[in-house]
């Protein structure tokens, strides 16, 4: 039983029932001046009302079900000394705090808020700055991370942490958070049944979102922009990715999304815009790509290594420098009814489907794979002639890699 | 007027002028003659600055013409082949030349003289050879420079126009102009020229009046005298 | 010079060929827009076409004009005009009227299709800038060829060869040398090789606009600096300008030495 419901709290207060929900005010001139003291004095299900002010505290251990509620964003300044709040009890709510200066360490992953082996937690409206790790969920279940703002100042990967990290956690919702300038915006490892919805993860050093060994997760309508390497989904099964936007992930090893050893995923309705590589696929099978927009990417899709039985249906490929790139000449993937802006065929029977197939792999993409500097010859007449002759009689590109029914108009 | 010293010009391996010295310091009509390929046109073009000499100097009206172009204001030149930008009308061409020279011309009189009125609004590409030559003459004579160079002025003209041309040339002479003419029509030369400049193998072989030429060659007929030079020189 | 320019220009805008050129672009613009029904896509297609076609037309037209206006030139030479003035005037007249045909021929259909209300306007402006540069460069190169060759057939031959070389063959050798020497760091070389061909240079400008995502996928620091900052744009524009000025200077120089 939690005490987050104000009306219930008021009701119990009116009854004068002190055994139930009590509010302890914390401020410089109050009876209780530190949060640590507040936690120590509080009984289960009490609320600590932290008033505006700066609290220089760290290693606050919340070991009973409490609500830590900030009023007008009180500042908790850790002075770079270590972890700030560690939650080791079920049913803890943290709301409306401004936490800065988390300690940086090469041996311990200090976080602004850590939840350890607990359930039914809620972390919301929290602002984190100058952090190492932000919100760290460790072996925890059934919680919610909602509407937080995490703004780091990471410069190097080796001494920076992740914004929101889930480790061996289950049934957690991560929603409406903004994460910037940390190592990985959102990081999941061994975490299943997680919902990641409507977050904005941008300008992070490495990945905007990073999945490792996590299954049955769903992420929808998030925006990942200008991250060092985009989004990485690795060694995971049955992931659903819907309506996300991957934008402006530019660089040598940068992708809108990297899929590595991913099986049985659904990738629907996403937008990949202006990335060096829209999706980089390695060893991933049985993935359904549907209704995605690939707009102005260097490579819309780069297929490396063994990828079998993937299907690309009803996607829009708009003005990408290269639509598809393969590094082998075998193909077991299906391309069907996509719109390709590079398609130059015709539709004489006016059924909306081009009468000649489209071959999305250019010979030039092989040349560029081999000798990257040749990229400067993109769009030259010489390369166009060579690509054209390859299209007429494919030698280097997989013969069956084609969209037999290319659409004439883009899908809305 | 014109002073040429040691003029040499070579086109590739072909030595066209090899040391021409010429001085003309008075008005009058000077006919530049010589067999085909003797360098008449090259000489004239050198004076006009269209051909750049290898050696030697040319001054026109006391100024060295090397790298200079303003002196051409004083020269009225009638080129051998009259071809003009085909998309222009006659009227526009006249206006253009006046505009380029920043000079007023007395074209009205010449238009009447040659009966050019009906052609003024025609495009140059539609004109006949004779009419083009009339335009050519018109463009040359509408200005009043002290030096006039006429390269084969009689080409394609009907008899009436030829008479008018002669009148124009004589009129110029009376004004004290210096007029250089090349022509293959010896009757025309004989009738008009005060002095003959005869070019041979890139040099001036003879310069003087028709009488002097006749005396020199011992011929009584001008045409024969000219022919005589060619034959005798061929023997040399 | 402006008077010559004016008359050459008048002469040209009345000539059949300018109309052919203008109508060709007009038709190209309309056809592309009709087929694609999409401004951005049409602009991208046009960019590929422009960098090959404009040099070809500029070269052929330049050589043709130079030879066919020989008499006009001689008429001018007898006038009190500076030689360089005459040739530069004619050159700017030709290049100017070609540029005008290009701008109007493509501009009209695109404006009718709502260019000003579309975001394609920047790409379209770039297209026109590149088209103008290429017109000026290749007309100047054509004039240079023509002024150095009395023989028309030879002049035409050289002009077409020049185009073929810069539009296709050069890139072939370029690609070959990149593949042969792939063991070595090549990014400086590949950028330098681009600078020596105005068509490649224009292509680079287009790449900067359309393919920046792909270009940034490479490791070389020189590449990164060139394409990732404004350096690429500045350098490419500067060298294009240089490519325009150089043949014009040679033309002015050559015209002083030439006999007519």
Describe the protein's architecture and organization.
Chain A is mostly beta strands and about 400 residues long. Chain A has a single domain, classed as Pectate Lyase C-like (3 Solenoid). Helices cover about 10% and strands about 35% of the residues of chain A. Chain A contains four helices and 39 strands. Chain A is elongated and about 85 Å long. Chain B has a single domain, classed as P-loop containing nucleotide triphosphate hydrolases (Rossmann fold). Helices cover about 35% and strands about 25% of the residues of chain B. In chain B, the strands form two sheets. In chain B, strands 6-7-8-3-9-10 form a six-stranded mixed beta sheet, with helices on both faces. A four-stranded antiparallel beta sheet of chain B has the order 2-1-4-5, covered by helices on one side. In chain B, a hairpin with a 2-residue loop joins strand 4 and strand 5. Chain C is mainly α and about 260 residues long. Chain C has one domain. In chain C, helix 5 runs antiparallel to helix 6. Classes of the chains: A mainly beta (about 400), B alpha/beta (about 240), C mainly alpha (about 260). Chain B: This is ABC transporter ATP-binding protein. Chain B: It comes from Meishania litoralis. Chain B: Keywords: ATP-binding, Nucleotide-binding.
Summarize the structure.
Chain B has 236 residues and is an alpha/beta fold. Chain B has helices at 40-48, 90-101, 107-114, 129-141, 159-174, 186-192, 210-217, 222-235, and strands at 2-11, 14-24, 28-33, 55-60, 63-64, 75-78, 147-151, 178-182, 195-200, 203-208.
Q: What's the topology here?
A:
The complex is a heterotrimer of chains A (412), B (236) and C (260).
Chain A: H1 6-14, E1 23-26, H2 35-41, E2 47-50, E3 54-55, E4 60-62, E5 67-70, E6 75-77, E7 85-87, E8 93-95, E9 98-100, E10 111-116, E11 122-124, E12 127-129, E13 133-138, E14 141-146, E15 149-151, E16 164-167, E17 170-175, E18 178-180, E19 186-189, E20 195-197, E21 200-202, E22 209-212, E23 218-220, E24 223-225, E25 231-237, E26 240-242, E27 245-247, E28 257-263, E29 266-268, E30 271-273, E31 277-282, E32 288-290, E33 293-295, E34 299-304, E35 311-313, E36 316-318, E37 322-326, E38 334-336, E39 339-340, H3 363-370, H4 381-392
Parallel strand pairs in A: 1-2, 2-5, 3-6, 4-7, 5-8, 6-9, 7-10, 8-11, 9-12, 10-13, 11-14, 12-15, 13-16, 14-17, 15-18, 16-19, 17-20, 18-21, 19-22, 20-23, 21-24, 22-25, 23-26, 24-27, 25-28, 26-29, 27-30, 28-31, 29-32, 30-33, 31-34, 32-35, 33-36, 34-37, 35-38, 36-39
Chain B: E1 2-11, E2 14-24, E3 28-33, H1 40-48, E4 55-60, E5 63-64, E6 75-78, H2 90-101, H3 107-114, H4 129-141, E7 147-151, H5 159-174, E8 178-182, H6 186-192, E9 195-200, E10 203-208, H7 210-217, H8 222-235
Helix pairs in contact in B: 3-4, 7-8
Chain C: H1 2-13, H2 16-36, H3 39-68, H4 70-77, H5 83-112, H6 121-148, H7 152-180, H8 187-195, H9 198-210, H10 212-215, H11 221-228, H12 231-257
Helix pairs in contact in C: 1-5, 2-3, 2-5, 3-5, 3-6, 3-7, 3-9, 5-6, 5-12, 6-7, 6-9, 6-12, 9-12
Protein name (chain A): Nitrous oxide reductase family maturation protein NosD
Organism (chain A): Meishania litoralis
Keywords (chain B): ATP-binding, Nucleotide-binding
């Amino acid at each position: 039983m939690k005490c987050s419901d104000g009306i219930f709290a008021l009701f119990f207060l009116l009854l004068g029932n002190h055994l139930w929900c009590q509010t302890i005010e914390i401020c410089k001139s109050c009876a209780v001046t530190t949060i640590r003291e507040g936690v120590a004095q509080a009984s289960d299900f009490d609320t600590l009302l932290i008033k505006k002010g700066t609290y220089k505290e760290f290693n606050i251990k919340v070991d009973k079900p409490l609500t830590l509620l900030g009023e007008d964003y009180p500042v908790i300044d850790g002075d770079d000394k270590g972890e700030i709040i560690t939650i080791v009890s079920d049913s803890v709510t943290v709301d409306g705090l401004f936490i800065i200066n988390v300690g940086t360490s090469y041996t311990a992953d200090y976080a602004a808020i850590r939840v350890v082996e607990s359930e039914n937690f809620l972390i919301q409206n929290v602002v984190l700055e100058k952090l190492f790790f932000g919100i760290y969920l460790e072996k925890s279940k059934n919680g919610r991370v909602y509407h937080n703002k995490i703004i780091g100042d990471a410069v190097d990967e080796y001494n920076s942490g992740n914004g929101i990290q889930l480790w061996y956690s289950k049934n957690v919702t991560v929603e409406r958070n903004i994460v910037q300038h940390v190592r990985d915006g959102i990081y999941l490892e061994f975490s299943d049944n997680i919902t990641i919805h409507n977050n904005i993860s941008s300008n992070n050093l490495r990945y905007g979102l990073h999945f490792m060994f996590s299954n049955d997760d769903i992420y929808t309508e998030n925006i990942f922009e200008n991250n060092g390497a985009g989004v990485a989904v690795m060694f995971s099964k049955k992931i659903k990715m819907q309506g996300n936007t991957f934008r402006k992930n530019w660089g040598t090893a940068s992708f809108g999304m990297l899929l590595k050893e991913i099986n049985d995923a659904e990738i629907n309705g996403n937008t990949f815009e202006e990335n060096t590589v829209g999706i980089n696929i390695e060893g991933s099978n049985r993935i359904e790509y549907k209704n995605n927009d690939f707009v102005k990417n260097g490579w819309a899709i780069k297929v490396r290594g063994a990828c079998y039985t993937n299907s690309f249906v009803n996607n829009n490929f708009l003005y990408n420098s290269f639509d598809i790139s393969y590094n082998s000449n075998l193909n077991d993937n299906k391309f069907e009814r996509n719109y390709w802006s590079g398609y130059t065929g015709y539709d004489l029977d006016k059924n909306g489907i081009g009468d000649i197939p489209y071959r999305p792999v250019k010979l030039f993409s092989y040349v560029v794979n081999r000798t990257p500097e040749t990229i400067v010859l993109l769009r030259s007449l010489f390369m166009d002639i060579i690509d054209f002759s390859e299209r007429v009689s494919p030698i280097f590109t997989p013969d069956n890699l084609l969209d037999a029914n290319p659409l004439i108009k883009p899908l809305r | 007027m014109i002073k040429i010293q040691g003029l040499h010009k070579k086109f590739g391996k072909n030595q066209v002028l090899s040391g021409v010295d010429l001085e003309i310091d008075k008005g009058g009509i000077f006919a530049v003659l010589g067999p085909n390929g003797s360098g008449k046109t090259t000489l004239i073009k050198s004076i006009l600055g269209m051909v750049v000499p290898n050696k030697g100097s040319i001054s026109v009206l006391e100024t060295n013409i090397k790298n200079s172009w303003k002196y051409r204001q004083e020269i009225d030149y009638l080129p051998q082949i009259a071809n003009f930008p085909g998309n222009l009308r006659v009227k526009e061409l006249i206006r253009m030349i006046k505009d380029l020279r920043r000079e007023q011309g007395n074209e009205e009189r010449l238009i009447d003289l040659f009966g050019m009125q009906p052609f003024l609004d025609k495009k140059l590409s539609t004109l006949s050879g004779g009419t083009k030559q009339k335009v050519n003459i018109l463009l040359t004579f509408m200005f009043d420079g002290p030096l006039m160079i006429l390269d084969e002025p009689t080409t394609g003209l009907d008899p009436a126009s030829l008479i008018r041309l002669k009148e124009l040339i004589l009129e110029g002479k009376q004004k004290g102009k210096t007029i250089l003419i090349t022509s293959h029509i010896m009757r025309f030369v004989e009738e008009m020229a005060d002095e003959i400049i005869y070019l041979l193998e890139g040099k001036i072989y003879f310069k003087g009046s028709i009488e002097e030429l006749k005396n020199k060659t011992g011929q009584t007929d001008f045409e024969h005298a000219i022919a005589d030079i060619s034959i005798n020189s061929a023997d040399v | 010079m402006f008077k010559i320019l004016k008359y050459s220009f008048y002469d040209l805008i009345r000539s059949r060929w300018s109309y052919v050129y203008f109508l060709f672009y007009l038709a190209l613009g309309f056809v592309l827009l009709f087929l694609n029904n999409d401004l951005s896509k049409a602009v991208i297609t046009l960019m590929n076409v422009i960098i090959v076609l404009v040099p070809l037309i500029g070269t052929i037209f330049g050589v043709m004009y130079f030879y066919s206006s020989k008499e006009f030139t001689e008429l001018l030479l007898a006038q009190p005009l500076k030689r360089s003035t005459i040739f530069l005037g004619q050159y700017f007249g030709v290049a100017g009227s070609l540029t005008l045909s290009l701008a109007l021929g493509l501009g009209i259909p695109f404006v009718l299709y709502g260019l000003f209300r579309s975001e394609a306007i920047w790409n379209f402006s770039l297209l026109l800038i590149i088209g103008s540069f290429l017109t000026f460069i290749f007309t100047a190169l054509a004039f240079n060829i023509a002024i150095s060759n009395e023989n028309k057939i030879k002049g035409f031959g050289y002009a077409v060869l020049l185009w073929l070389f810069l539009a296709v063959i050069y890139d072939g050798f370029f690609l070959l040398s990149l593949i042969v020497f792939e063991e070595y760091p090549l990014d400086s070389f590949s950028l330098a090789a681009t600078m020596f061909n105005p068509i490649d240079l224009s292509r680079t400008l287009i790449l900067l606009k359309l393919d920046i995502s792909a270009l940034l996928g490479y490791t070389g620091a020189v590449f990164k600096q060139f394409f990732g900052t404004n350096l690429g744009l500045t350098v490419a524009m500067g060298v294009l300008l240089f490519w325009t000025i150089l043949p014009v200077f040679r033309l002015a120089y050559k015209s002083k030495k030439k006999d007519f």
